[in-house]
Amino acid sequence: MDFSQLRLDTPRMKLVPISEEHTGAVCEHFTAEITRYMWPSAPKTRQEIADHVLLKQLAMRKGEQIALILIRKDNREFLGYASLHEVQSRSPELGIWLKKSAQGHYYGYEALSALIEWAEATLHYDYLKYPVDKSNYPSRKLIEKLGGTPQDEYVKCSESGRVLHELEYRISHAPLESGL
C-alpha cells in the first residue's frame, strides 16, 4: 500500500506527507530541547534533514511508514511531525513531536487522534505502541488520554547518548464491526 498521498484533516490542522518543502521548518524546530526525551538527536545539518525526508518518502511509497507534517489550517503554520513506524507489523509505533510554541495547545492529541482513527480503519494490527521516557509527563498524559496503558518498561540509550527510561504504552486495536 502506497501512503505517499495520505492526508488527514482535523478541526484545526492538515496532516500532509513530509516533503522537501518542510526541510527548513523541521531543521529549525527539531532542536536538542525537543529531542530531550526522544531516541533521535537533533540534526546537525540541513542535509541530514533532507536525507531523512527522502528516506521517509520512500518508506511511505513502500507502505512501511507514515510521516506526516502538521500544518495549521488557518495560517499554514508548521506545528510538528507525526509518524507511524512499522505499519505492516502487528504492533506499529506511534510518534509525534511539536515545535516548542505549539506545545500545550492540544495539537498532539488532535493529530494522534486522527492518525489512530485512520490506522484502526485501514491497518491490521494487534496494538499501537508509544514508547515514552518516564520523565516526559506531558507525553505520558497525552497517550493516556488517547487510551494508552503502560505495558512494558526498558532502558535504552538515545542517539545523543542520553539514557532513556521508557514506558511502552499500548493502544489495543478496536475490533472491526462484522456486520452481523
TrEMBL record:
Any Pfam family: Acetyltransf_3
Gene3D superfamilies from the UniProt entry: 3.40.630.30
GO CC, one annotated term: cytoplasm
Ranges where the N-acetyltransferase domain occurs: 13-170
Tree of life domain: Bacteria
Single annotated GO MF: protein N-terminal-serine acetyltransferase activity
PROSITE patterns the UniProt entry points to: GNAT
Record's protein name: N-acetyltransferase
Gene source species: Legionella taurinensis
